[in-house]
Specification:
The structure holds two protein chains of two kinds. By secondary structure, chain A is α/β, with parallel strands linked by helices. In chain A, 35% of the residues lie in helices and 17% in strands. Chain A has one domain: Thiolase/Chalcone synthase (Peroxisomal Thiolase, Chain A, domain 1, 3-Layer(aba) Sandwich). In chain A, strand 5 and strand 6 form a beta hairpin. In chain A, helix 3 crosses helix 14. Chain B is mainly β. In chain B, the strands form three sheets. Chain B has a five-stranded antiparallel β-sheet, with no helix packed on it. The longest helix of chain B has 11 residues. Chain B has one domain. The chains are: A alpha/beta, B mainly beta. At the A-B interface, helix 5, helix 6 and strand 5 of A face strand 6, strand 7 and strand 8 of B.
């Protein structure tokens, strides 16, 4: 396989709850234009496009073909990827496959969501409802008509079991979830491409209403409008077109467990926080990247965290630290932007969630941190040599992992 | 700053019918019929011996069809829980009058816990290890609703 690097990233100018000034394809066009601008490439340079967003959320069934002109994809192969919350990283992985295989040298991955134009609940229902058994497993209130959603408050209800299990196994307290929430929202306040940009204290978080114990409203992510495009290139093109300041994709993995909208109660899994796919996918990625001790060798992490307990949980599940240690790292300041293992310096999905782009914004954040091209105030001061990005999605049971580095793995 | 007044420029009626007719499948059908007899049924995998409830056709870990039907419960143990403080009604989140107790109940003889509502106790008393018992509707109607909820059996297992 050939070495592949992210050579440029383009975001929409903002990620907000409602982009009323543009339609879907105009919004995507902004992000694609920014990526081309940032790399100095022209549309003719791009050989293929991969494209990702959530199915049903906006009710557009062939969005990639509607977008073909706006994303400069005329006369090029275009394929749509949709793997739930992981869509963004799956789309980038597909672009990687194109280039690593030798098929193409320059491929663009385009991801977005414009949640204000559709109904996320409709999209989520389309994931859950077809498998009636899933609803039984979720304890969905099918009968009383009171619409408890996924067991006590939409996705939050589903995640609450996971949070309970995480607290139980790790020894962390609900206050650690508050603290992680405050840290990430405060990081987001420094990030011009974050949605909820408000410096937040633990007390602010604790003042928000309880949704489904132990998760409060202040532990949950927003719904956002926004798009992100990344351009990946072969080593030959990196040498030809860039100054060498790129982010190499040195390891990747993905894995699924039984299909039930959970990974907290599916098939035969009994622990909502087990998340075995995270272990499987990360071990594959580390092996490929030549990483033997992730906690020591990684310089930063970008976790997919729809809910505030998840950043802590994922650090453990992805082997960055041992079980029960993440909240101690938090207490010690290690997860701060200036800390030993800066985690979600961007503010995470927890602060910005244009779903199709959410798992893309993890590796693009890592790439820009490595390239030291972060806009705003959240550039990690130390040199980033290896960065871990993670996506969580599917039917709550699909995990993607990508390790980025300042140089390719020598072959 | 006041938002610009919005107006809809076009409203189109399109012939889309979003009524879908999903089949529950053979295994859930049998499970539902079991509920109609006030029985909770699961299936055991001949490979790993795990008992899955509600029953599923296939064991992904062993790559084989599960076909040994077993009755589980009606008593079980709370393994995990949440307390719902809001409800979602057509996308809108509303505060509940009373918190609702939702638990993962590991039924006797089952490997996988069942998600269910627990009634008949205060939220503050719900904890892992609590013994609970299935309460069925009376009369039953051969539907998922026949398994109404769980109630504490009055003894705790630590």
């Amino acid at each position: 396989m050939r070495n592949v690097a992210i050579i440029g990233v383009g975001y929409t100018p903002v990620f907000v709850s409602k982009r009323k000034d543009v339609n879907i394809v105009e919004m995507i066009s902004e992000s694609v234009g920014a990526a081309l601008n940032n790399t100095g490439l022209t549309p003719d340079d791009i050989q293929a496009v991969t494209y990702g967003n959530m199915q049903t959320f906006e009710g557009v069934n062939l969005p990639h073909l509607w977008t073909s002109d706006h994303m400069r994809a005329l006369n090029k192969p275009t394929i749509r990827i949709s793997t739930g919350g992981t869509t963004g990283m799956s789309t980038l992985q597909a672009a990687y496959y194109y280039v690593a295989s030798g098929m193409y040298d320059l491929v663009m991955a385009v991801t977005w969501e414009k949640q204000s134009e559709g109904d996320s609940q409709v999209g989520l229902s389309g994931i859950v409802v077809p498998e009636a058994m899933t609803m039984v497993q979720h304890g969905m209130d099918l009968f009383s008509g009171k619409g408890m959603g996924f067991g006590g408050g939409g996705s939050t209800g589903a995640a609450s079991y996971q949070a309970m299990s995480y607290l139980h196994h790790s020894g962390a307290s609900p206050e650690h979830i508050d603290k992680m929430a405050a840290l990430e929202r405060s990081n987001a306040a420094l990030n011009p491409y974050a949605h909820l940009r408000k410096k937040t204290t633990v007390e602010d978080v604790q003042a928000t209403p309880m949704v489904a114990f132990p998760l409060r409203f202040g532990h949950t992510c927003p719904t956002s409008d926004g798009a992100t495009t990344a351009i990946v290139a072969s080593e030959e093109m990196v040498n030809k077109l860039t100054d060498g300041n790129v982010a190499w994709i040195v390891g990747l993995g993905s894995a699924t467990s039984d299909p039930c909208t959970a990974n907290f109660l599916e098939g035969q899994i009994t622990d909502p926080a087990e998340q075995m796919p995270a272990k499987i996918a990360s071990e594959k990625a580390y092996k490929m990247a030549g990483i033997e001790d992730p906690g020591r060798e990684l310089d930063m992490c970008e976790m997919y965290n729809g809910f505030a307990h998840q950043s802590l949980m994922w650090l453990e599940k992805l082997g960055v630290c041992k079980e029960g240690e993440a909240h101690k790292m938090l207490d010690a300041g290690a997860l701060n932007i200036e800390g030993e293992m800066p985690t979600n310096a961007s503010g995470g999905v927890f602060s910005t969630n244009a779903i199709g782009a959410s798992a893309m914004n993890r590796p693009t954040e890592c790439a820009l941190q490595i390239m030291r091209k972060i806009e705003g105030g959240h550039q990690i001061p130390k040199k980033i040599k290896k960065a871990l990005s993670h996506g969580w999605g599917g039917m709550f049971q699909y995990v993607t992992v990508m390790v980025l580095a300042d140089e390719p793995v020598s072959s | 700053m006041a938002e610009k007044a919005e107006r809809s420029v076009v409203e189109v009626e399109v012939p889309l019918d979003f009524t879908y007719n999903y089949r529950v499948g053979q295994y859930l059908e049998r499970y539902i019929k079991g509920l109609g007899e006030k029985k909770i049924l699961g299936v055991r995998c001949s490979g790993c011996s795990k008992v899955t409830v509600p029953p599923r056709n296939f064991c992904g870990a062993c790559n084989r069809v599960m076909d040994e039907w077993v009755e589980v419960g009606p008593e079980g143990t709370v393994e995990n829980y949440t307390i719902g403080h809001v409800k979602v009604e057509r996308g809108a989140v509303e505060k509940l009058d009373e918190p609702r107790l939702l638990a993962m109940v590991k039924l006797e003889g089952a490997t996988v816990p069942l998600l269910a509502e627990v009634k008949g106790m205060a939220a503050s008393e719900l904890e892992n290890g609590l013994r609970v018992k299935a309460v069925f509707k009376d009369p039953v109607s051969d539907s998922l609703a026949d398994l109404s909820h769980f109630e504490p059996v009055g003894q705790e297992v630590k």
